[in-house]
Structures are given as C-alpha cells and as structure tokens.
Write a structure and sequence with these properties.
By secondary structure, the chain is an alpha/beta fold. It folds into 2 domains: about 270 residues, 3-Layer(aba) Sandwich (Hexokinase, domain 1); about 140 residues, ATPase, nucleotide binding domain (Nucleotidyltransferase, domain 5), CATH 3.30.420. Helix content is about 45%, strand content about 15%. Strands 1-11-10-9-12-13 form a 6-stranded mixed sheet, with helices on both faces. The protein is elongated. The protein starts with a helix and ends with a helix. Bound molecules: beta-D-glucopyranose (BGC). The site of beta-D-glucopyranose (BGC) has 17 residues, from helix 5 and strand 10. Beta-D-glucopyranose binds next to helix 5 and strand 10.
Length: about 500
Amino acid sequence: MGKVGFGVAVGCAVVTCAIAAVLLGRRVQSRRKWRRAVEMLQEFEEGCATSIGRLRQVVDAMAVEMHAGLASDGGSKLRMLLTFVDNLPDGNEKGTYYALDLGGTNFRVLRVQLGGRGSMILSHQVKHHPIPQELMSGTSEDLFDFIARTLKQFVEQEDDGSEQKVDEKKELGFTFSFPVRQMSVSSGILVKWTKGFSVEDAVGKDVARCLEEAMTKAGLNMQVAALVDDIVGTLALCHYYDKDTVAAVVIGTGTNACYVERTDAIIKCQGLLTSSGGTVVNMEWGNFWSSHLPRTSYDIALDDESPNSNDQGFEKMISGMYLGDIARRVLYRMAQEADIFGDDAYNLSIQFIFRTPLMAAMHEDESPDLREVRRILTENLLLPHVSLKVRRLIVRVCDIVTRRAARLAAAGIVGILKKIGRDGSGGVASGRTKGTPRRTVVAIEGGLYAHYSMFREYLNEAVVEILGEEVAQNVVLRVSEDGSGIGAALLAAAYSSN
Ligand code: BGC
C-alpha cells in the first residue's frame, strides 16, 4: 500500500470512528433522555398515589368538612348550600313545563310533558345551543338576553297552544350550575363563577330575576318556578324513578354533589322545619379541599394559572374541564426536560389544547400500535412523528391522571355515605343504627362517568375497595341522563304556583 493509500485508509478509519462516536453519543444522550422521561413518569405516579389508606383519609375529611359546612357559613370550603328543595318529585306531577339548563359551554332548552301518577314523563323535547365565547365573559344583560331570546324561539316552535290558556304564565325550571346562595326555591344569588365563566357583574345578583327580566323584555310570559343547580336536577330525576336515591354526583366539565340531609343536622339554620324532615343540600364539593389529596406540581401550576386560583381544588383534580390539561402539563414538561417530542412540541404549551375527551380516546386505544393515539397526536397536537414507545408513555400519563381522579371521586361519594350513615360504619354522629343494610342509590351524571369506561371502572372498583364487598352490595351507582334539565322541569312542576 502506497503512502496515499495508507493515508486514505487512515482517513476513512478516522471518519468512521468519528461517525461511530457521534452515533454512540446520540444513543447515550437519547437513552439518558428516555431515562429522564421514565423517571418523571415515576415521580408523577408517586405524586398521584391513591392507596386505600389515603382514600380513607379523604373519606373522613369529606365527612368532617360536611359537618363543618353545615355548622356555619364559611366553616368549611364545602359551602353546603340550602336548596329549599324539601320534597323530591314523586310521580304525581302533571302538566307541561319548560326548563333551561345553563352550566357549561352549551345550554339547553327543554319542554317536558308530565302525565301524573302512572303515566310519568309523556314526552320531552330538547334543543342544544352553544354559548358564544364572548358572552361567557361579557355582561349579565347580554348573557340573559341571549338566553331569553333563544328560549322564546324554542317556545314558539314547540308550543302548539293545546296545553295552556294563552294568557297563563308558563312555568320554568332554571338549572343554573354555579354556586348560588338560595333565598327560596325560585331565587338565589350567584356566589361566584366556575368552569371558565366570568360575567363579573352577575356575581351578587339574583340570577332568577335576571332571567325573568330578560324574558319579559323578550316578550315571554314565563316565570321561574324552581332555580336549581344541575346536581339537584339529577337527584330529582333519579328519585322520581327510584325512591331509594339519597344523593347525586355530577362529574362532567365541572363536578358537584348533593344529598338529602336531616334538617336538625343543619346547625347553621336552626329551627329550619320542612314537612319531610329533610332537605336537599348542594355541597358544591368542587371546592372541597384536604391536605390528604395527592397534589403534584402540575396541579399547583394549573391552579396558579387558572382564573379562580385557590378555588375549586377538588374540581381541578377530578373534572373533565381539567384532566386533559393536567396530562398536557406532564407531557409538556417531559418535552422540555427529556425532549421526547423533538422540536415539534410547541402545541403542548397551549393551555387546554389537550381536551379530556381526546385524553379519554387515547387512554382507551386498544390497538397494538396505538393508532388512535397517533391520529390524535398528528391531527390535534400536530405531533406526527411520535414513536410507539413514547405513545405508550403518553397512555400511561392518561391512566395516572384518570385513575387518581376516579378514585378521589369514589372517596368523595363514600364520604357522603359516611356522613349519612350508609357506609356500614354507623356514620359520623349521624345517630343511625349500625349494621342495618339499606339499599342506597347514588345518581351519577356527567360524561366522565357515563362515557369514559376506564374512569367508570376505576371509580366503581374504588367504591368497593373502600366500603368492602358486603356493604358495597347495597350501594347502587345509577347513571342518570338529562337529569339536570328534566329534573329541573320536574321541580318546576313540584313547586309550581299553578
Ligand atoms: C359548579 C356546580 C356544578 C358543577 C357541575 C361546578 O363548577 O360550581 O354548581 O354543579 O360544576 O356542573
């Protein structure tokens, strides 16, 4: 080999070594990054742990906070609001009633025909309307005018004139799913907005009157017979069909629970008398807080950046508005610290881009190559080149977020059962006798439970885990649909002045 040949050979060897070194370096670096991603996943999982011990602490905290909220206003983050619903519909309601259901990005108008005993709900018509984004943070006048105009169109379409005399006032059940301090069953003052609404001049106003003024302006001869939270509508509808229903839970965009309480247990309203001896309490459990809740740095960041920070802590861990965004935050930090998405990760920095239904669809993707995960990453997050290994990691993140949420919701439900002495333990100062098994129905409404099967399975499993099989046999979690709307119409009928 001549000098030239030798030189070339050495050159080639050097280049080859250099390439090998670069490749090796890259591989080492990519292994290191992957290790970091896995480490972050483990940290997140540990931060979200919901051992049975921790769930029991949450159960106890819920029951204790319920007592505190019933003892005095401001005694707990659980507001425990009176609803003035003392009697739930029983099937005797008769006539045609309207309902208006405002509580998320859509609102619905309904017309319900009730046949009285035996014939139950004869028919109901529903129409959904999206709420224009600008109205969610505009003025209360604009919001209520818009709703009243839409309601009027609906009434004109549906009303065939056969049911009522022309000049008779129609009765409306108004579902307003935000914290309201009620003065009566048909009036109440908005305490604060949740779920992204911020029509600030409505806070402190009687929302039923705001609606009635707008209806008058729109030329509608209608009055609010019942102002209810969606959760109370859910309880009303489920109780209409099943008299063993004692509580209701909503887990949708937001979350809440209500239940039937003995009036003598409501210390903050001493002397409250009702014909039934009980009344429905709207817990506003989305605002529940306890140091036993497993909170991570991602939850803290989400809360800090929300328009209602330090509020709705439980809601931010378990409801549909937030779950996707918790997962997004974990993935975005993995993108930053472990570079799992290369240079494509910009979209993950956008708040709420990863909505909970997308998260659920990814989580429930059962295809071996996670095709649905790939589709959503490509179409919704503009991340077209994510490897299978990373797609699996994403599914794990979704699983951790959902499992924690479902198990905490389960603990909340058992907390209510404990408070009313239906958890098999005799109840915290509930004065009820130990050990008598009674069928107990809890109505559950909202997309997370009704349509996200992994969430539902985790929740059901946790209820049995906490209560034990024997007690859990007497507890029925009953899916309710349209309770927020139809239930409000039923309550309008039950409290109608006609
Ligand atoms: C509201 C509750 C409502 C729940 C479910 C929460 O954000 O505060 O009043 O029942 O969402 O819609």
